[in-house]
Structure formats: C-alpha cells, structure tokens
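So, could you explain the following?
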Amino acid sequence: MMTMILIAIAAGFASALMFASIISGALISLLLLYFTPLPLMVAGLGWGPLAATIGGIGAATGLGAIFGLPICIPFVVMMALPAWWLGHLALLGRPAADAGPSEGATPAPPAMEWYPIGRLLLWLAGFGTLSTMATLLTLGTDAATITEVLRGALLRVLGPRAAASGNEIQQRIDVALMILPAAFAISAMTMLMLNFWLAARITATSGRLRRSWPDLRSTELPPMTLAALSAAIAFCFSSGLLAMLAHAVTAALLLAYALIGFAVLHTLTVGLKGRGLWLACTYTMVVLSGGWLIVAMAALGIADAIFGFRQRFLHNKRPPPLPAS
C-alpha cells in the first residue's frame, strides 16, 4: 500500500510539473504538455485506479495552490479525469461466460473477459470532445464571442498583412474557424490515445499490466455509434455552440472509425505476400497526405460496421470441416 501511495505521489508530481511547464513559454513545454497524462496513466494501469486518483488529486491540489483555478481546472478536466477513468475501465474484467471448470489437480485461472477496446475508443472520443468544449468555453460563453477571439488569434499569428488583406484571406480564415473545433477534438483525442497506448506498453513491458493485451485487429465500436455519428453530422448544419459541439463530436467519432479502418486493413491483409511493405506504404501515404487519407480509413471502418468485412474474411479463411467417418 505504501509503495502504491509513493508511486501515485511521484506520478502526480511529474504530471503537475509537465503541465505547469507551459507557463514558461519554452518550445519544449509543448512536448511536456502533450505527455502530461502519461505518468498518471502508467500509475493507473500498473497500480490500479486508486493510484491515479491519489496522484491526480495531489497534482490538482498543488497546481491550484500555486497557480489558481485557471490552471487547476483544465488539468483536472483534460488530464487527470481521463487518466483515472480510462485506467479504471481498462482494468474492468469478469470471468468469461464460456469458461468451464478446468480438469486436473491444479485448476487453471478462469479466462477473463475484459472491458472492450471499442468502448474505450468511444470514451477517448468523449474526452476529446469534452476537452475541446472546455477549451472553447474559456474563450467565451457563446459562439460569437468564441469565434471573434479565435479570429483575433489567427490574425495575430498571420500578421498585420492578413488584417488588411482582401476577401480571399478572410474567407480562408472563416473556413479555418469552422474546422477549428474539429481540429481541437482530433488533437485532444490523439493526445489521450497515444498516452494511453504508451502507458499500456510501459506497464506490459514491466510486467505490471493487470490485463491481457487485446487483439486490436478485432476492435469494434458499439452499433449505436453509427446513429450517434449521423446525429452529430446533422447537427453540424445548425448554429451556435450546438454546431461547435457537433463538429467536435463528428471529428472524434470519425477518428475512431478511422482506427477501425486500420484494424480492417490489418485483418484483410493477413496472409498477403509483402504484407509489411503494403502496410508501411499505407501508413506513409497517410502521413504524407496530411491526414486526408484518414477520411478514407474512416469510410472503410464505417463500411465494415455495416457490411462486416472482417467477419466475412475470417469466415472464409476457416479450414473446411473434417469429413464424417
């Protein structure tokens, strides 16, 4: 117990220092900020959600005492809360329903059914959306105020020439303002997802991971996700804060389906000659395209959810039944 508490305090201290480094304005502080939830996630996956809770409370208390609520609340919402809750869900498990009693003198431990990775993806999308809306609401309480603050920030980044430029630049700024909530959601979800994967890898390598490593190729999102995505896309055509929220939700869910698309790609290429080369070329094209091929991967993930490409592929790959004697 004492070891767990010491590790939790150390993880909280490290996360608090990484988050507070942004005040310095140094370029490396952006990298430290990106990996702020990693220590808490490692503590949560390796020593249980209580360790993440203690570390998160300690870090938030220290940040609040030194820098005040404007630093404490974003840390709790964007870093500590996701680290604790995702670690808690990842370690949820129960004996598999088809695990019967084992034979022999020494009974084997029952097979465990762990919390589905697809639902963890949905939680990651939810936390990405929550972080986005929390960030936007710090700029204002209505869509018009938020848009004007963002416009002013973009104009300062582009310089005085942009403010005095013609309609073309202004139209580009309007397009950028429209996609910024989606970009924020994708960035926040990617940050949490990368940190969570790294934390799982670190704890698995050290032997502290309390669950078996999942088969990521079989990851599936719940069926109702398609309905939620359709509703979010419909609300994108509204206005105000509702439209901003809809853009963030749509972007986060499309990124989740893009990850399903990659899982489909890894499944359908099993047994293919030069599989590693094909996958490497695909990932390289995704990076070089500036992320636009992510849309194609999201379409593949949605198509798999509708038509079941992986189930059909795996069914066809099964060996034929043995002839009856």
